[in-house]
Amino acid sequence: MTGVQTCALPIYHEQVHPHGDSSDDAFIRDYMAAVGAYKQTFPTRDEQIEQTPDPAVREMLIRQKQLGIDTTFDRFDKQKPQCNFGLAGVCCKNCNMGPCRITAKAKRGICGADADLIVARNLLRSAAAGAAQHGMHGRELMLELKWAAESKLDVPLLGEQKIKDTAAAFGIPTAHRKLKSVAADLAGALLADLSNPDPAKPYKTIEACAPPERVAVWKDLDLVPISAYHEVFEAYHKTGVGTDGDWKSILQQMLRCGLAFTFSGVVGTSIATDGLFGVGDRVTSKVNIGALKKGYVNIAVHGHLPLLVKAIVKAGQSEKFVDLARRQGAKGIRFYGICCSGLSAMYRYAGVIPLSNAVSAELVLGTGALDLWVADVQDVFPAIMDVAHCTQTAVVTTSASARLPGAERFEYDRHHSNIGETKTLAEKIVMRGIQSFADRRGVPVYIPPYEVEAEVGFSVEYVHKRFGSMTPVAEAIRDGRILGIVNMVGCNNPKVPYERCIADVTEVLVKNNVLVLSNGCASYPLMKLGYCSKAGREKAGEALRKFLAPDLPPVWHVGECIDNTRSSGIMAGIAATLGVDLPAMPYAFSSPEWSNEKGLDAAMGFRLLGVSSYHCVEAPIFGSKNVIEFMKEGTRETLGSVMHVNVDPKALGEKIVADMKAKRAALGWD
């Protein structure tokens, strides 16, 4: 049987490509052999059914196979065998003289680019795309914070304390000023970091929010961004034909994109989100497909942007619309979340139930239980339209940036000239859901009977509320009740058994008394499998279990993907309490099943903080000795962090534990 549980790929640059006097031809033969071995670990669709840990996913995969509806896993099988050159990162189509690929016959592209340069340029373009994706997410929230402060947008500023505290860190005056004035200045500072073209101006979010020790490191390495827009522009400039021919320079720019992604796309976005909608608090939520209920107008929100989601939920929970739904024979209106829209809403608004991450969205649609699917931006796969057609589910898009062929459009225009019509737009969308419920009578519905409860909404603020300060958690780490902390995040990838790697790594960690923080798509299996429940502490080792008693889970769910900010804030707060720099702490970042471009930046963000990253999926770097060395070991001295990849998730978990023990020994905490 193939699959990551039974086939481990060695650490690539250390074992598959030994350094020394081997010729280029031998190296090319080696990396092509390594790519072939790696491809053998990719599971088939039937192996996905056998190995995925969630019974609801298994049942829906079988049902959609019976119905003849394709899923991500079917399409992955049809793409096999995947291109060796693409997996190795040695194909280039950046100009129209190509496409070029590196082989034993052709060791350079037409322009003269070698494997090191081509692999590095491809990585940089991915990092730039990830910075643009979260940057656009951030721009929406920063503008909405600005418009709310200017009363152009009629929404309250619910995160008053967050706005004031963050403004003070930015050096923005707060005393004797109206909240809206402070919020307007804060939004302006965040937007300046996003788009400032002037290299002489500071990147205020980094100066205000990053640990001073890290800022000094980044300045010494000339990594501090000018702005997010600038670094994305520069990335595409440098990787164009005939511009930058130095792979080292290219990878330095990748790190700048990682910082721009982190401090504008993640930290800046989080500040604006919490300022507008509040931090939220710890709550108990239902999770998984079994939480779908027949007989209701069932509306799913999918994507990343919370403004319209909030308005839709508020409208749909009003007496007016509930009454309209009942007149059509419905019991009421229920809301569900897919991907980060669900994670952002679930701990802020009662009754929004998270169902699945992006990869299994088609399985949720395949139940036939949804009347309306509301899509905004990012991680909304085009294939959902095929399933929606089969189940007669209405689909609407809400952003001019992200349209689906065949979907209805209830959108903010690209100039946001209708942002003041948010309430009206939301009411139209809810009415469309009620109409769809009436139109879909008689559509077959199949809901796998699996739902659990999860504790969600952990944050820096919650830790202070629960413990009074970071000190009790810091003391538990120092005395060994908590071995270390891992931030478990990332999307999913059909190259490994779906959600199995995340679950297996986490199982090893909590048994070894590691506290896990989680957000984004990776958090769904941890919620569904009970790691985020109060009873989940029984899965933990004895020392961690005692610390968590009586009502804390072993995985603290901090929110959506931008809520990596909460994880890094908890980590930094504990390190500061202990007087230890981040790179020395027993911390780790893990995205076992990462797949999209944002995942590369997320790992870079923590690497830049000095926190090593751990994965079960390789980046497309097989074809360059130098890039492999840089990505996996080359930043150990400069940033204090490295990258580890092992397709065996339990072995990866053990590696994290071993590295944490080594850091504890170095600190004298053994």
What layout of secondary structure does this protein have?
Layout: H1 12-16, H2 24-39, H3 45-51, H4 55-67, H5 72-79, H6 84-88, E1 91-92, E2 100-101, H7 115-149, H8 160-169, H9 179-195, H10 204-209, H11 212-220, H12 228-238, H13 247-277, E3 283-287, E4 297-302, H14 306-316, H15 319-327, E5 333-338, H16 339-346, E6 352-356, H17 361-365, E7 372-375, H18 384-391, E8 394-399, E9 408-412, H19 422-439, E10 452-456, H20 460-467, H21 471-478, E11 484-488, H22 500-511, E12 514-519, H23 523-528, H24 542-548, E13 555-559, H25 564-578, E14 587-590, H26 597-608, E15 613-615, H27 625-632, H28 636-639, E16 643-645, H29 649-667
Parallel strand pairs: 4-5, 4-7, 5-6, 7-8, 8-9, 11-12, 11-14, 12-13, 14-15, 15-16
Antiparallel strand pairs: 1-2, 3-10
Helix pairs in contact: 7-9, 7-12, 7-13, 7-26, 8-9, 8-13, 9-13, 12-13, 13-26, 14-19, 21-25, 22-29
Order of strands, widest sheet? 6-5-4-7-8-9
Would you report the number of β strands?
16
Separation, N- and C-terminal Cα atoms: 40 Å
Mean pLDDT: 94
- Which radius of gyration do the C-alpha atoms yield? 24 Å
Spans of at least 5 consecutive residues with low confidence:
1-22
Please give the share of residues in helix.
40-55%
Count of individual helical segments: 29
The main pleated sheet reads as: 6 strands, parallel
Structural class assignment: alpha/beta
Hey, roughly how much beta strand do the residues contain?
5-15%
Descriptive overview:
The structure is a single chain. With 670 residues, this protein is α/β, with parallel strands linked by helices. Helix content is 49%, strand content 11%. The chain has 29 helices and 16 strands. The chain has a six-stranded parallel β-sheet with strand order 6-5-4-7-8-9, with helices on both faces. Strands 13-12-11-14-15-16 form a six-stranded parallel β-sheet, with helices on both faces. A hairpin with a 7-residue loop joins β1 (91-92) and β2 (100-101). α7 runs antiparallel to α12, α12 packs antiparallel against α13 and α22 (500-511) runs parallel beside α29. The radius of gyration is 24 Å and the shape is globular. Residues 1-22 have low confidence and may be disordered.
